[in-house]
Amino acid sequence: MSQHAKGPNLLQENVGVLKSRMGTFYPGSHVIFRGHDLHADLKDMDWVELYVFGITGRRFSQAQLRLMNAIWTYTSYADVRLWNNRVAALAGSARSTGPLGLAAALAISEAGIYGGGIFARSIDFFIRTKHRMDDGAELDSCILEELDMHRSIGGYGRPLVNGDERIPHLMELACSLGLDRGPYLRLAFAVEEKLLAGRLRMKMNYAALVAALGADIGLTQRESCLFVFPVFLAGMPPGFIEASDRPEGTLYPIPCTDILYEGESERAWPK
Q: Which helix (H) or strand (E) holds 26?
């Protein structure tokens, strides 16, 4: 393919051509997954291992995979009050299908304030800050610039409560696996120390910890975001099932009297 082709020329070069270095399905014969026979070479991989191999093309140690598995497990909350679980549960209450409800719930899990968007912001901040500090910048100035730019730092602070119940459990596991000594994790706690000493008093939340641990095992920002995509998934089916077992439409009904309406007053409709 020409490096200079673009527009119609670029499209013309790709007419009728579909080449992939990622995977190929040979019906009735075999399946290639990132250059390996899926059913022969990769048959002993568990699902998490295959998933992260698909994202990165790299193999991870059993300790790293155990940590990745725990990152998903420790945030599997089956509480339908949570923004994304609520979508799955409402789908059940409306008698939609489970896959459709879960797909919608996963889609909104990328929320920029308290969902996947925070993981992206957090790992981006850590990578930029570490590069700057390696070049001689002070952490205080990096934090101030980030606050001036965004008024917050991804992965610090939390709605409703300033603290995160998942952190001690994940840190205990990381310590037992010897995965608690990376430079990004040290940076994450150093940022928390600075923020707690300042006027914001913000503690680290789960996103910052996961971002730091991910960066320390070599995940890029894009790889990290793809890895955390299913992080809330296990908590969604229980709410969908429970809402499906209740009478239809009884999850979060809102009486008309509870709706604040400031539009036109009541008017007559032609029959």
A: strand 23-26
Tell me, what DSSP letter sits at residue 86? Answer: H
Domain residue extents for the chain: 19-59, 83-111+231-249, 116-227
- The CATH homologous superfamily for domain 116-227 is Cytochrome P450-Terp, domain 2 (1.10.230.10)
The full length of the chain comes to 271
Write the Ramachandran bin of 136: left for phi over 0, alpha for psi from -120 to 50, otherwise beta. left
Taking only the tens place, the pLDDT of each residue in 243-263 is 999 999 999 999 988 989 888
State whether residue 5 is helix, strand or coil: coil
* Span 196-233, pLDDT tens digits: 998 878 899 999 999 999 999 999 999 999 999 999 99
Residues ≥6 apart with Cβ < 8 Å to 53: 34, 42, 45, 59, 60
Strand arrangement, sheet containing 23-26? 23-26, 30-33, 36-37
